[in-house]
């Protein structure tokens, strides 16, 4: 059984999620201690419990320690079962926990189910400290499609902090062996489009308009497209998402509104992150850089990519992968911000 120290590196929930994915896909049981020890509220929280129980249901696993605030977990997977699933982050306790983080755990597993699966998830879709749905749809899923991982995602209702209640539906196809076994992301290619997405739920449309106007002021040299939309959500919320579509890769940067935070500040945070990326030599944005390695090893391909920032999330995730797959070669060049996996 593989032993994982959950306090390693950034000491967050990604260690648990990656362990669940790799354990199920490679049928390697694991025992993790010090879960999320690096966080102000350590242990298993509702979104982590949802991910654990979802992985347990999908893989018919034997599990110990799957309870709120537990700091240890034993997970012994069996067979991956395709089908229709429903998972609610607030099932055990009211929570706006991120459905996108639950998806990080279960999606790699469902790609190795014997047939197609459909999953409905309920919780936070646009909440702090997690990828928003727009990023999942426009960046992650489109990138892993290159590795022959096919998943369609749609949002039926947005969910903001603190209530959550958003709804997302995934349709996942089984992985078919990739015909290409060598991937490089060392150049972005031509910039084809920049899009400003500004949305608001249960608040004045003028907030979304102010966000979009400020983002346009910052990014006007790129002649960006603008989408302003009022959306359905159980609680008030607003966000700005900047999508950059290059010839070889998509990137995305977002910022969420909160009480007392001006709409202009929301726009500035997302737009400035895009500019920081654009003026760097990175290709894979730093959010994707730590999510992509799991799919690289699952596709059993050689991949080399340059990112705009080496984060503790990335280094920690590579460490977890090596614990499960010590035969994999992983080279991290922090000076050149290069990652190589084969």
Automatic annotation (TrEMBL):
GO terms for biological process: RNA processing. Its main location: cytoplasm. It comes from the Bacteria. Keywords: ATP-binding, Cytoplasm, Ligase, Nucleotide-binding. It is found in: Cytoplasm. InterPro entries: RNA3'-term_phos_cycl_insert (IPR013791), RNA3'_phos_cyclase_dom (IPR023797), RNA3'_phos_cyclase_dom_sf (IPR037136), RNA3'_term_phos_cyc (IPR000228), RNA3'_term_phos_cyc_type_1 (IPR017770), RNA3'_term_phos_cycl-like_CS (IPR020719), RNA3'P_cycl/enolpyr_Trfase_a/b (IPR013792), RPTC_insert (IPR036553). GO terms for cellular component: cytoplasm. Catalyzes the conversion of 3'-phosphate to a 2',3'-cyclic phosphodiester at the end of RNA. The mechanism of action of the enzyme occurs in 3 steps: (A) adenylation of the enzyme by ATP; (B) transfer of adenylate to an RNA-N3'P to produce RNA-N3'PP5'A; (C) and attack of the adjacent 2'-hydroxyl on the 3'-phosphorus in the diester linkage to produce the cyclic end product. The biological role of this enzyme is unknown but it is likely to function in some aspects of cellular RNA processing. This is RNA 3'-terminal phosphate cyclase. It comes from candidate division WOR-3 bacterium. The lineage of its organism: Bacteria, Bacteria division WOR-3. The gene is rtcA.
């Amino acid at each position: 059984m593989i032993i994982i120290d959950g306090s390693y590196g950034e000491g967050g929930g990604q260690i648990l999620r990656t362990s669940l994915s790799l354990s199920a896909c490679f049928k390697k049981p694991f025992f993790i201690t010090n879960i999320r020890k690096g966080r102000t509220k350590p242990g298993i929280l509702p979104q982590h419990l949802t991910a654990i129980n979802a992985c347990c249901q999908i893989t018919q696993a034997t599990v110990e320690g799957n309870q709120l605030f537990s700091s240890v977990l034993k997970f012994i997977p069996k067979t991956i079962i395709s089908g229709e699933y429903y998972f609610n982050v607030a099932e055990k306790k009211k929570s706006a926990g991120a459905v996108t983080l639950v998806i990080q755990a279960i999606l790699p597993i469902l790609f190795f189910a014997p047939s197609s699966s459909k999953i409905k998830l309920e919780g936070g879709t646009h909440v702090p400290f997690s990828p928003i749905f727009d990023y999942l749809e426009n960046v992650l899923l489109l990138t892993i499609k290159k590795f022959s991982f096919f998943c369609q995602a749609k949002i039926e209702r947005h969910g903001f902090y603190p209530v959550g209640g958003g709804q997302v539906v995934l349709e996942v196809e089984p992985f078919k062996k990739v015909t290409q076994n060598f991937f490089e992301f060392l150049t972005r290619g031509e910039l084809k489009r920049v899009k400003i997405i500004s949305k608001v739920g249960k608040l004045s449309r003028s907030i979304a308009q102010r966000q979009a106007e400020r983002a346009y002021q910052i990014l006007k040299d790129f002649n960006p497209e603008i989408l302003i939309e009022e959306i359905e959500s159980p609680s008030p919320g607003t966000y700005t998402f900047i999508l950059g579509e290059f010839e070889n890769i998509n990137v995305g940067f977002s910022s969420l509104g909160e009480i007392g935070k001006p709409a202009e500040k929301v726009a500035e945070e997302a737009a400035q992150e895009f500019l920081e990326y654009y003026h760097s030599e990175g290709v894979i944005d730093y959010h994707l850089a730590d999510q992509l390695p799991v799919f690289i090893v699952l596709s059993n391909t050689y991949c080399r990519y340059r990112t705009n920032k080496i984060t503790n999330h990335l280094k920690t995730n590579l460490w977890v992968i090596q614990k499960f797959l010590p035969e994999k070669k992983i080279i991290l060049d922090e000076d050149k911000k290069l990652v190589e996996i084969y």
